[in-house]
Amino acid sequence: MRYELYYWPTIQGRGEYVRLALEEAGADYVDAARQESGMAAMMRMMEAKNGTPPFAPPFLKAGKLVIGQTANILLYLGSRHSLSPKGEAASLWVHQLQLTVTDFVVEIHDTHHPLGSSLYYEDQRSEAKKRTNEFWKERVPKFLGYFEALLETSGGAFITGRRLTHVDLSLFQIVEGFRYAFPKRMKAFEHKIPRLVDLHDRVASRPNIKAYLSSERRIAFNEDGIFRHYKELDF
Amino acid sequence: MRYELYYWPTIQGRGEYVRLALEEAGADYVDAARQESGMAAMMRMMEAKNGTPPFAPPFLKAGKLVIGQTANILLYLGSRHSLSPKGEAASLWVHQLQLTVTDFVVEIHDTHHPLGSSLYYEDQRSEAKKRTNEFWKERVPKFLGYFEALLETSGGAFITGRRLTHVDLSLFQIVEGFRYAFPKRMKAFEHKIPRLVDLHDRVASRPNIKAYLSSERRIAFNEDGIFRHYKELDF
User: Fold this and answer.
1) CB-based contact (8 Å) between B92 and chain A?
2) How many Cβ pairs closer than 8 A exist between chain A and B?
3) Any B CB within 8 A of A155 CB
4) Using the 8-state DSSP alphabet, how is residue B164 labeled?
5) Do the beta carbons of residue B32 and residue B6 sit within 8 Å?
6) How does pLDDT run across B29-69, given as a tens digit for each residue?
7) I want to staple B78 with a disulfide (CB 3.0 to 4.6 A). Which of A178, B31, B83, B231 is the partner?
8) What ipTM does the predicted assembly reach?
9) In what order do the strands lie in the sheet with A3-6?
10) Cβ pair A72:B119 closer than 8 A
11) Reduced to 3 states, what is the DSSP secondary structure of residue A98?
12) Is B115 on the interface with A (CB under 8 A)?
Protein backbone atom coordinates (compact mmCIF):
# COMPACT_ATOMS: atom_id res chain seq x y z
CA MET A 1 0.00 0.00 0.00
CA ARG A 2 1.29 3.42 -0.95
CA TYR A 3 0.39 6.11 1.58
CA GLU A 4 -0.79 9.47 0.35
CA LEU A 5 0.22 12.40 2.55
CA TYR A 6 -1.79 15.57 2.05
CA TYR A 7 -0.25 18.81 3.20
CA TRP A 8 0.44 22.31 1.92
CA PRO A 9 3.00 21.78 -0.82
CA THR A 10 5.37 24.69 -0.18
CA ILE A 11 6.10 24.43 3.55
CA GLN A 12 7.41 21.97 6.10
CA GLY A 13 4.80 23.00 8.65
CA ARG A 14 2.95 20.33 10.59
CA GLY A 15 3.32 17.94 7.67
CA GLU A 16 7.03 17.66 8.38
CA TYR A 17 6.49 15.59 11.52
CA VAL A 18 4.69 13.05 9.37
CA ARG A 19 7.22 13.23 6.52
CA LEU A 20 10.06 12.51 8.96
CA ALA A 21 8.24 9.42 10.24
CA LEU A 22 7.49 8.13 6.75
CA GLU A 23 11.09 8.71 5.67
CA GLU A 24 12.65 7.08 8.73
CA ALA A 25 10.36 4.10 8.22
CA GLY A 26 11.28 3.85 4.55
CA ALA A 27 7.55 3.80 3.86
CA ASP A 28 6.14 3.95 0.36
CA TYR A 29 4.36 7.30 0.15
CA VAL A 30 3.58 10.17 -2.14
CA ASP A 31 3.49 13.79 -0.99
CA ALA A 32 0.18 14.12 -2.76
CA ALA A 33 -0.44 17.87 -2.77
CA ARG A 34 2.94 18.40 -4.43
CA GLN A 35 1.80 16.36 -7.46
CA GLU A 36 -0.20 17.71 -10.36
CA SER A 37 -3.81 18.39 -9.33
CA GLY A 38 -2.83 17.41 -5.80
CA MET A 39 -4.01 20.62 -4.18
CA ALA A 40 -7.43 20.30 -5.79
CA ALA A 41 -7.69 16.73 -4.52
CA MET A 42 -6.70 17.86 -1.05
CA MET A 43 -9.37 20.55 -0.96
CA ARG A 44 -12.01 18.12 -2.22
CA MET A 45 -11.22 15.65 0.55
CA MET A 46 -11.57 18.35 3.19
CA GLU A 47 -14.93 19.39 1.79
CA ALA A 48 -16.28 15.84 1.51
CA LYS A 49 -19.83 15.43 2.75
CA ASN A 50 -19.29 11.93 4.04
CA GLY A 51 -16.56 9.74 5.44
CA THR A 52 -14.06 11.38 7.76
CA PRO A 53 -13.29 14.81 6.30
CA PRO A 54 -10.31 16.37 8.12
CA PHE A 55 -10.56 19.85 9.59
CA ALA A 56 -7.14 20.78 8.21
CA PRO A 57 -3.98 19.30 6.68
CA PRO A 58 -1.95 17.27 7.27
CA PHE A 59 -3.91 14.11 6.70
CA LEU A 60 -2.89 10.69 5.51
CA LYS A 61 -4.73 8.40 3.14
CA ALA A 62 -3.91 4.82 4.06
CA GLY A 63 -5.99 2.52 1.90
CA LYS A 64 -9.57 3.38 2.77
CA LEU A 65 -8.65 5.33 5.88
CA VAL A 66 -8.29 9.11 5.87
CA ILE A 67 -6.54 10.11 9.09
CA GLY A 68 -6.18 13.71 10.25
CA GLN A 69 -4.33 15.46 13.06
CA THR A 70 -0.55 15.13 13.13
CA ALA A 71 -0.32 13.23 16.41
CA ASN A 72 -3.12 10.90 15.34
CA ILE A 73 -1.33 10.11 12.09
CA LEU A 74 1.84 9.35 14.06
CA LEU A 75 -0.17 7.16 16.44
CA TYR A 76 -1.24 5.15 13.40
CA LEU A 77 2.13 5.08 11.65
CA GLY A 78 4.05 4.46 14.86
CA SER A 79 2.34 1.17 15.55
CA ARG A 80 2.81 -0.03 11.97
CA HIS A 81 6.40 0.96 11.40
CA SER A 82 8.06 0.35 14.77
CA LEU A 83 8.18 4.05 15.57
CA SER A 84 6.36 3.56 18.86
CA PRO A 85 6.39 0.78 21.42
CA LYS A 86 3.80 -1.92 21.72
CA GLY A 87 1.78 -2.23 24.89
CA GLU A 88 -0.84 0.17 26.15
CA ALA A 89 1.16 1.99 28.82
CA ALA A 90 4.18 2.69 26.63
CA SER A 91 2.01 3.58 23.67
CA LEU A 92 -0.03 6.10 25.68
CA TRP A 93 3.18 7.64 27.00
CA VAL A 94 4.71 8.13 23.56
CA HIS A 95 1.44 9.60 22.28
CA GLN A 96 1.31 11.91 25.30
CA LEU A 97 4.78 13.20 24.47
CA GLN A 98 3.82 13.73 20.84
CA LEU A 99 0.80 15.75 22.00
CA THR A 100 3.10 17.85 24.15
CA VAL A 101 5.20 18.53 21.05
CA THR A 102 1.94 19.47 19.30
CA ASP A 103 1.17 22.03 22.00
CA PHE A 104 4.64 23.45 21.64
CA VAL A 105 4.27 23.76 17.87
CA VAL A 106 1.12 25.87 18.32
CA GLU A 107 3.06 28.23 20.56
CA ILE A 108 5.98 28.36 18.13
CA HIS A 109 3.58 29.37 15.37
CA ASP A 110 1.91 31.99 17.52
CA THR A 111 5.18 33.84 18.11
CA HIS A 112 4.73 35.40 14.67
CA HIS A 113 0.94 35.38 14.64
CA PRO A 114 -0.26 36.31 18.14
CA LEU A 115 -3.32 38.15 16.86
CA GLY A 116 -4.47 35.38 14.58
CA SER A 117 -3.44 33.43 11.52
CA SER A 118 -5.74 35.26 9.10
CA LEU A 119 -3.88 38.54 9.61
CA TYR A 120 -0.54 39.37 7.99
CA TYR A 121 2.61 39.18 10.06
CA GLU A 122 3.37 42.76 9.05
CA ASP A 123 0.18 43.87 10.79
CA GLN A 124 1.11 42.27 14.11
CA ARG A 125 4.84 42.83 14.22
CA SER A 126 4.99 44.65 17.54
CA GLU A 127 2.69 42.10 19.19
CA ALA A 128 4.87 39.34 17.72
CA LYS A 129 7.88 40.87 19.46
CA LYS A 130 6.12 40.79 22.81
CA ARG A 131 4.87 37.28 22.34
CA THR A 132 8.28 36.07 21.18
CA ASN A 133 9.99 37.58 24.21
CA GLU A 134 7.52 35.91 26.55
CA PHE A 135 7.93 32.67 24.61
CA TRP A 136 11.71 32.58 24.95
CA LYS A 137 11.64 33.71 28.54
CA GLU A 138 8.95 31.36 29.83
CA ARG A 139 7.90 28.72 27.37
CA VAL A 140 11.07 27.53 25.64
CA PRO A 141 12.85 26.82 28.95
CA LYS A 142 9.75 25.01 30.20
CA PHE A 143 9.14 22.84 27.13
CA LEU A 144 12.75 22.09 26.21
CA GLY A 145 13.67 21.71 29.86
CA TYR A 146 10.95 19.07 30.15
CA PHE A 147 12.28 17.05 27.22
CA GLU A 148 15.89 17.52 28.33
CA ALA A 149 15.02 16.10 31.76
CA LEU A 150 13.28 13.13 30.17
CA LEU A 151 16.38 12.41 28.09
CA GLU A 152 18.45 12.52 31.25
CA THR A 153 16.45 9.75 32.86
CA SER A 154 15.35 7.76 29.83
CA GLY A 155 18.04 5.14 30.23
CA GLY A 156 18.92 5.23 26.55
CA ALA A 157 19.82 7.44 23.63
CA PHE A 158 16.22 8.35 22.89
CA ILE A 159 13.43 10.12 24.68
CA THR A 160 11.71 6.96 25.93
CA GLY A 161 14.76 4.74 26.17
CA ARG A 162 16.85 2.69 23.82
CA ARG A 163 14.54 2.74 20.82
CA LEU A 164 13.78 5.62 18.54
CA THR A 165 10.18 6.81 18.34
CA HIS A 166 8.43 9.45 16.25
CA VAL A 167 8.84 11.81 19.21
CA ASP A 168 12.60 11.80 18.70
CA LEU A 169 12.11 12.71 15.05
CA SER A 170 9.85 15.59 16.10
CA LEU A 171 12.37 16.86 18.64
CA PHE A 172 15.01 16.87 15.91
CA GLN A 173 12.70 19.08 13.88
CA ILE A 174 12.16 21.46 16.81
CA VAL A 175 15.92 21.97 17.31
CA GLU A 176 16.46 22.32 13.56
CA GLY A 177 13.59 24.78 13.29
CA PHE A 178 14.79 26.94 16.18
CA ARG A 179 18.26 27.11 14.63
CA TYR A 180 16.67 28.42 11.44
CA ALA A 181 14.13 30.80 12.96
CA PHE A 182 16.03 32.10 15.97
CA PRO A 183 19.76 31.50 15.34
CA LYS A 184 20.93 34.06 17.91
CA ARG A 185 18.54 33.09 20.65
CA MET A 186 19.18 29.40 20.01
CA LYS A 187 22.94 29.82 20.04
CA ALA A 188 22.71 31.37 23.49
CA PHE A 189 20.28 28.71 24.70
CA GLU A 190 21.74 25.44 23.44
CA HIS A 191 24.17 24.95 26.30
CA LYS A 192 21.12 24.34 28.50
CA ILE A 193 19.93 21.42 26.41
CA PRO A 194 23.02 19.33 25.56
CA ARG A 195 21.06 16.07 25.41
CA LEU A 196 18.51 17.47 22.97
CA VAL A 197 21.33 18.76 20.77
CA ASP A 198 22.92 15.29 20.84
CA LEU A 199 19.58 13.74 20.01
CA HIS A 200 19.21 16.14 17.10
CA ASP A 201 22.59 15.08 15.74
CA ARG A 202 21.87 11.42 16.24
CA VAL A 203 18.59 11.67 14.34
CA ALA A 204 20.17 13.76 11.56
CA SER A 205 22.79 11.11 10.94
CA ARG A 206 20.42 8.18 10.59
CA PRO A 207 20.74 6.91 7.02
CA ASN A 208 17.13 7.43 5.95
CA ILE A 209 16.86 10.84 7.56
CA LYS A 210 20.22 11.94 6.19
CA ALA A 211 19.20 10.92 2.68
CA TYR A 212 15.86 12.68 3.09
CA LEU A 213 17.36 15.94 4.34
CA SER A 214 19.64 16.22 1.32
CA SER A 215 16.88 15.32 -1.13
CA GLU A 216 14.41 17.54 -2.93
CA ARG A 217 11.66 15.96 -0.90
CA ARG A 218 12.77 18.09 2.05
CA ILE A 219 11.28 21.56 1.53
CA ALA A 220 13.53 24.36 2.77
CA PHE A 221 12.45 26.41 5.77
CA ASN A 222 10.75 29.61 4.66
CA GLU A 223 8.61 32.45 5.96
CA ASP A 224 5.28 30.76 5.24
CA GLY A 225 5.84 27.90 7.65
CA ILE A 226 5.83 27.39 11.40
CA PHE A 227 9.49 28.32 11.93
CA ARG A 228 10.06 31.73 10.39
CA HIS A 229 13.19 33.78 10.52
CA TYR A 230 12.41 37.42 11.17
CA LYS A 231 15.49 39.34 12.27
CA GLU A 232 13.48 41.63 14.52
CA LEU A 233 12.33 38.64 16.58
CA ASP A 234 15.80 37.19 17.06
CA PHE A 235 18.40 38.97 19.13
CA MET B 1 -10.19 0.87 40.72
CA ARG B 2 -10.74 4.48 41.68
CA TYR B 3 -9.33 6.95 39.18
CA GLU B 4 -7.53 10.01 40.43
CA LEU B 5 -7.95 13.09 38.28
CA TYR B 6 -5.35 15.79 38.80
CA TYR B 7 -6.24 19.28 37.65
CA TRP B 8 -6.20 22.84 38.95
CA PRO B 9 -8.81 22.81 41.70
CA THR B 10 -10.56 26.13 41.08
CA ILE B 11 -11.32 26.04 37.36
CA GLN B 12 -13.09 23.91 34.79
CA GLY B 13 -10.34 24.43 32.22
CA ARG B 14 -9.06 21.47 30.27
CA GLY B 15 -9.87 19.17 33.15
CA GLU B 16 -13.57 19.63 32.47
CA TYR B 17 -13.46 17.51 29.32
CA VAL B 18 -12.18 14.66 31.46
CA ARG B 19 -14.63 15.33 34.30
CA LEU B 20 -17.56 15.19 31.88
CA ALA B 21 -16.38 11.83 30.56
CA LEU B 22 -15.89 10.39 34.05
CA GLU B 23 -19.30 11.65 35.13
CA GLU B 24 -21.15 10.38 32.06
CA ALA B 25 -19.51 7.00 32.55
CA GLY B 26 -20.46 6.92 36.22
CA ALA B 27 -16.82 6.12 36.91
CA ASP B 28 -15.41 5.95 40.40
CA TYR B 29 -13.02 8.89 40.63
CA VAL B 30 -11.68 11.53 42.93
CA ASP B 31 -10.88 15.07 41.82
CA ALA B 32 -7.57 14.73 43.58
CA ALA B 33 -6.21 18.27 43.62
CA ARG B 34 -9.42 19.44 45.30
CA GLN B 35 -8.70 17.21 48.28
CA GLU B 36 -6.50 18.11 51.22
CA SER B 37 -2.81 18.06 50.17
CA GLY B 38 -3.97 17.34 46.65
CA MET B 39 -2.18 20.26 45.05
CA ALA B 40 1.11 19.26 46.65
CA ALA B 41 0.66 15.71 45.37
CA MET B 42 -0.07 17.05 41.89
CA MET B 43 3.08 19.14 41.81
CA ARG B 44 5.17 16.23 43.07
CA MET B 45 3.89 13.99 40.27
CA MET B 46 4.79 16.60 37.66
CA GLU B 47 8.28 16.91 39.05
CA ALA B 48 8.90 13.17 39.29
CA LYS B 49 12.31 12.09 38.05
CA ASN B 50 11.09 8.78 36.75
CA GLY B 51 8.00 7.17 35.34
CA THR B 52 5.86 9.29 33.04
CA PRO B 53 5.78 12.80 34.53
CA PRO B 54 3.16 14.92 32.72
CA PHE B 55 4.09 18.30 31.28
CA ALA B 56 0.93 19.87 32.68
CA PRO B 57 -2.45 19.03 34.17
CA PRO B 58 -4.87 17.45 33.58
CA PHE B 59 -3.57 13.98 34.13
CA LEU B 60 -5.23 10.81 35.30
CA LYS B 61 -3.89 8.19 37.64
CA ALA B 62 -5.38 4.85 36.70
CA GLY B 63 -3.82 2.17 38.83
CA LYS B 64 -0.14 2.31 37.98
CA LEU B 65 -0.65 4.45 34.87
CA VAL B 66 -0.25 8.20 34.92
CA ILE B 67 -1.78 9.55 31.70
CA GLY B 68 -1.42 13.15 30.58
CA GLN B 69 -2.88 15.27 27.76
CA THR B 70 -6.65 15.69 27.71
CA ALA B 71 -7.24 13.89 24.41
CA ASN B 72 -4.95 11.05 25.47
CA ILE B 73 -6.88 10.61 28.71
CA LEU B 74 -10.13 10.52 26.74
CA LEU B 75 -8.60 7.98 24.35
CA TYR B 76 -7.94 5.79 27.36
CA LEU B 77 -11.27 6.37 29.12
CA GLY B 78 -13.27 6.16 25.91
CA SER B 79 -12.25 2.61 25.19
CA ARG B 80 -12.92 1.50 28.74
CA HIS B 81 -16.26 3.18 29.33
CA SER B 82 -17.99 2.91 25.97
CA LEU B 83 -17.40 6.58 25.20
CA SER B 84 -15.71 5.75 21.91
CA PRO B 85 -16.28 3.06 19.31
CA LYS B 86 -14.26 -0.09 19.01
CA GLY B 87 -12.36 -0.77 15.81
CA GLU B 88 -9.31 1.08 14.57
CA ALA B 89 -10.90 3.27 11.90
CA ALA B 90 -13.73 4.53 14.12
CA SER B 91 -11.43 4.94 17.08
CA LEU B 92 -8.93 7.04 15.10
CA TRP B 93 -11.78 9.18 13.78
CA VAL B 94 -13.17 9.94 17.23
CA HIS B 95 -9.69 10.72 18.52
CA GLN B 96 -9.09 12.99 15.52
CA LEU B 97 -12.24 14.93 16.36
CA GLN B 98 -11.20 15.24 19.99
CA LEU B 99 -7.84 16.62 18.85
CA THR B 100 -9.67 19.17 16.72
CA VAL B 101 -11.61 20.22 19.83
CA THR B 102 -8.23 20.47 21.58
CA ASP B 103 -6.96 22.85 18.90
CA PHE B 104 -10.09 24.94 19.27
CA VAL B 105 -9.66 25.14 23.04
CA VAL B 106 -6.16 26.60 22.60
CA GLU B 107 -7.58 29.30 20.38
CA ILE B 108 -10.42 30.00 22.80
CA HIS B 109 -7.87 30.48 25.57
CA ASP B 110 -5.73 32.73 23.44
CA THR B 111 -8.56 35.21 22.86
CA HIS B 112 -7.81 36.62 26.31
CA HIS B 113 -4.09 35.83 26.32
CA PRO B 114 -2.73 36.54 22.83
CA LEU B 115 0.64 37.73 24.12
CA GLY B 116 1.21 34.77 26.40
CA SER B 117 -0.19 33.05 29.43
CA SER B 118 2.43 34.35 31.86
CA LEU B 119 1.25 37.95 31.39
CA TYR B 120 -1.85 39.41 33.02
CA TYR B 121 -4.97 39.85 30.95
CA GLU B 122 -5.00 43.50 31.99
CA ASP B 123 -1.66 43.97 30.26
CA GLN B 124 -2.88 42.63 26.92
CA ARG B 125 -6.42 43.92 26.80
CA SER B 126 -6.21 45.77 23.50
CA GLU B 127 -4.47 42.82 21.83
CA ALA B 128 -7.15 40.54 23.28
CA LYS B 129 -9.81 42.63 21.55
CA LYS B 130 -8.10 42.24 18.19
CA ARG B 131 -7.57 38.54 18.63
CA THR B 132 -11.15 38.03 19.80
CA ASN B 133 -12.52 39.87 16.79
CA GLU B 134 -10.44 37.76 14.42
CA PHE B 135 -11.48 34.65 16.35
CA TRP B 136 -15.20 35.30 16.01
CA LYS B 137 -14.91 36.43 12.41
CA GLU B 138 -12.73 33.60 11.12
CA ARG B 139 -12.22 30.79 13.56
CA VAL B 140 -15.56 30.23 15.30
CA PRO B 141 -17.45 29.92 11.99
CA LYS B 142 -14.78 27.55 10.71
CA PHE B 143 -14.61 25.27 13.76
CA LEU B 144 -18.29 25.25 14.69
CA GLY B 145 -19.27 25.09 11.03
CA TYR B 146 -17.14 21.96 10.72
CA PHE B 147 -18.83 20.22 13.63
CA GLU B 148 -22.29 21.39 12.52
CA ALA B 149 -21.68 19.86 9.08
CA LEU B 150 -20.58 16.59 10.67
CA LEU B 151 -23.77 16.49 12.75
CA GLU B 152 -25.80 17.03 9.59
CA THR B 153 -24.36 13.94 7.94
CA SER B 154 -23.67 11.74 10.98
CA GLY B 155 -26.83 9.70 10.55
CA GLY B 156 -27.66 9.90 14.24
CA ALA B 157 -28.14 12.24 17.15
CA PHE B 158 -24.43 12.42 17.92
CA ILE B 159 -21.33 13.63 16.13
CA THR B 160 -20.27 10.22 14.86
CA GLY B 161 -23.69 8.61 14.60
CA ARG B 162 -26.14 7.00 16.94
CA ARG B 163 -23.87 6.58 19.93
CA LEU B 164 -22.57 9.24 22.23
CA THR B 165 -18.80 9.70 22.44
CA HIS B 166 -16.57 11.94 24.55
CA VAL B 167 -16.50 14.34 21.61
CA ASP B 168 -20.20 15.07 22.13
CA LEU B 169 -19.53 15.84 25.77
CA SER B 170 -16.75 18.23 24.76
CA LEU B 171 -18.96 19.98 22.21
CA PHE B 172 -21.55 20.49 24.95
CA GLN B 173 -18.84 22.20 26.98
CA ILE B 174 -17.84 24.45 24.07
CA VAL B 175 -21.43 25.69 23.59
CA GLU B 176 -21.88 26.11 27.33
CA GLY B 177 -18.59 27.96 27.62
CA PHE B 178 -19.35 30.32 24.75
CA ARG B 179 -22.71 31.17 26.31
CA TYR B 180 -20.89 32.11 29.49
CA ALA B 181 -17.94 33.97 27.99
CA PHE B 182 -19.54 35.64 24.99
CA PRO B 183 -23.31 35.79 25.61
CA LYS B 184 -23.96 38.53 23.07
CA ARG B 185 -21.81 37.12 20.32
CA MET B 186 -23.16 33.64 20.94
CA LYS B 187 -26.78 34.79 20.89
CA ALA B 188 -26.21 36.30 17.47
CA PHE B 189 -24.37 33.22 16.24
CA GLU B 190 -26.44 30.28 17.49
CA HIS B 191 -28.93 30.31 14.62
CA LYS B 192 -26.06 29.13 12.40
CA ILE B 193 -25.47 26.00 14.49
CA PRO B 194 -28.91 24.56 15.31
CA ARG B 195 -27.64 20.98 15.45
CA LEU B 196 -24.86 21.83 17.90
CA VAL B 197 -27.38 23.63 20.10
CA ASP B 198 -29.61 20.55 20.01
CA LEU B 199 -26.64 18.36 20.83
CA HIS B 200 -25.81 20.62 23.76
CA ASP B 201 -29.34 20.24 25.11
CA ARG B 202 -29.33 16.51 24.58
CA VAL B 203 -26.07 16.10 26.50
CA ALA B 204 -27.22 18.44 29.28
CA SER B 205 -30.33 16.35 29.88
CA ARG B 206 -28.58 12.99 30.20
CA PRO B 207 -29.12 11.78 33.76
CA ASN B 208 -25.50 11.58 34.84
CA ILE B 209 -24.56 14.89 33.25
CA LYS B 210 -27.63 16.61 34.63
CA ALA B 211 -26.83 15.39 38.13
CA TYR B 212 -23.22 16.47 37.74
CA LEU B 213 -24.03 19.97 36.50
CA SER B 214 -26.20 20.65 39.52
CA SER B 215 -23.70 19.21 41.98
CA GLU B 216 -20.83 20.88 43.79
CA ARG B 217 -18.45 18.79 41.75
CA ARG B 218 -19.11 21.15 38.80
CA ILE B 219 -16.97 24.23 39.36
CA ALA B 220 -18.63 27.42 38.14
CA PHE B 221 -17.16 29.28 35.16
CA ASN B 222 -14.85 32.04 36.28
CA GLU B 223 -12.20 34.42 35.00
CA ASP B 224 -9.26 32.12 35.71
CA GLY B 225 -10.39 29.44 33.26
CA ILE B 226 -10.47 28.98 29.51
CA PHE B 227 -13.88 30.59 29.02
CA ARG B 228 -13.77 34.05 30.58
CA HIS B 229 -16.43 36.68 30.46
CA TYR B 230 -14.94 40.10 29.83
CA LYS B 231 -17.59 42.60 28.75
CA GLU B 232 -15.17 44.46 26.52
CA LEU B 233 -14.62 41.33 24.44
CA ASP B 234 -18.32 40.59 23.95
CA PHE B 235 -20.51 42.87 21.88
Assistant:
1) yes
2) 102
3) no
4) -
5) yes
6) 999 999 999 999 999 999 998 889 999 999 999 999 999 99
7) B83
8) 0.98
9) A29-31, A3-6, A59-62, A65-68
10) no
11) helix
12) yes
